[in-house]
Amino acid sequence: MTIVAHTRSEYREFIGRKPGKRAFVPTMGALHAGHLELVKAARQEVGPDGEVVVSIFVNPTQFGANEDLTQYPRPFHEDVKLCTEAGVDVVFAPLVEEMYPGGVSLGDMTSVQAGPVGSILEGASRPGHFAGMLTVVAKLFNLTGPDIAFFGEKDYQQLALVSAMVRDLNFPIDVRGVTTVRDTDGLALSSRNLYLSDAERATAVAIPRALTAAQMCGGSVREKLAAAQAELVGDIEVTYLAAMRNDLQAALDPDATDVPGRILIAARVGTTHLIDNCPISVGV
Ligand code: PAF
After folding, report:
1. Is 178 exposed, middle or buried (0-12, 13-18, 19+ CB in 10 A)?
2. 26 Cβ closer than 6 Å to some ligand 1 atom
3. How far apart are CA 148 and CA 171, in angstroms?
4. Where are the alpha helices (DSSP H) in the chain?
5. Of 58, 53, 24, whose CA–CA distance to 136 is shortest?
6. What confidence score (pLDDT) does residue 218 get?
7. Minimal CB count within 10 Å: which of 27, 149, 162, 200?
């Protein structure tokens, strides 16, 4: 049975009933198959004697002033139903007041700085986003007390930053990335895909095609980027196409022919901002 806890004290009452490890999947709700894959990975990891906790919290501090927090979908009952079907033990769904008793202005509270990786790629156009994300993840880690936490590779920069936070601030938590779930046309699952018209969706599949082209292309980082760029045609506005080290601390040398790394793409199709990425092994 899945139990829903809205407060820290409710959570404490319900958690710790099983002897095994605790796995945690943080979400903002509006769950789709990508989230359920994280839940599945969590259950596989801890087994039937472990606890799987999913948080549902639309975090105000990671939304910019021009991003409409109030419009974010909140199909709470449907989400709880999906969690129940997926065998989640506890859904932690706190109110804003519970998470941020002193208000939601990051500048007025103790918060987590994202460091240089927080201001590149997605962070370049969303100042403060990753500080807000890391602050809430740190709070959720402290409130839910997991042994292992699962994040989707689709939001690769988020995963890299959470891994860095856990290392730098000594959280005793094992962070795991889970492979991106894709639709049959290759598009990475995202709640934002709902905003695409049929024509926009047909354009958007250029993004996974570009990633595949980069992966398939032999040769240097420069050649891989060129192969990806060649696919990004049509009514698509590329925000960035980058080849980075796996920890995102630096761009790969364009001439490199023997490094592992990651290709990351962000593009606007119509009014929808889409991101995707894949691993590359250059010359290996
Ligand atoms: O990926 C998300 O849904 C959010 O950024 C997270 C990790 C739940 C923090 O609010």
Report:
1. buried
2. yes
3. 11
4. 8-14, 33-46, 76-85, 96-99, 122-125, 129-144, 156-168, 198-204, 206-216, 221-231
5. 58
6. 87
7. 200
Cα angle: 260, vertex 208, 65; to 5 degrees: 95
Pairing mode, if any, of strands 90-92 and 51-56? parallel
pLDDT in tens, 69-84: 998 999 999 999 999 9
Residue 101 in 3-state DSSP?
coil
Catalytic site includes residue 32: no
What strands, in cross-sheet order, belong to the sheet with 237-244? Answer: 237-244, 260-269, 272-281
For ligand 1, whether the C-beta of 60 sits within 6 Å is no
DSSP 66: T
* Ligand 1 mutation pick, 79, 130, 155, max ligand atoms within 8 A of CB: 155
**φ and ψ at residue 248, rounded to 5 degrees:** 60, 15
C-beta of 136 in contact with ligand 1 (< 6 A): yes
The pair of structure tokens assigned to 81 is 């139903």
Cα 185 to middle of ligand 1, angstroms: 25
User: pLDDT of 248-271, one tens digit each?
Assistant: 999 999 999 878 999 999 999 999
CA atoms within 13 A on the CB side of 11: 21
- Class assignment of domain 3-178? alpha beta
- Ligand 1, residue 162: give the atom nearest the CA: 7
Which pLDDT tens digit goes with each residue over 167-226?
999 999 999 999 999 999 999 999 889 899 999 999 999 999 999 999 999 899 999 999
Q: Give yes or no for residue 138 CB within 6 A of ligand 1.
A: no
Catalytic residue among 35, 77, 129, 273: 35
Architecture of domain 191-281 in CATH? Answer: 2-Layer Sandwich (3.30)
Ligand 1 atom with the smallest distance to the CA of 155 is 1
Domain locations in the chain as residue ranges: 3-178, 191-281
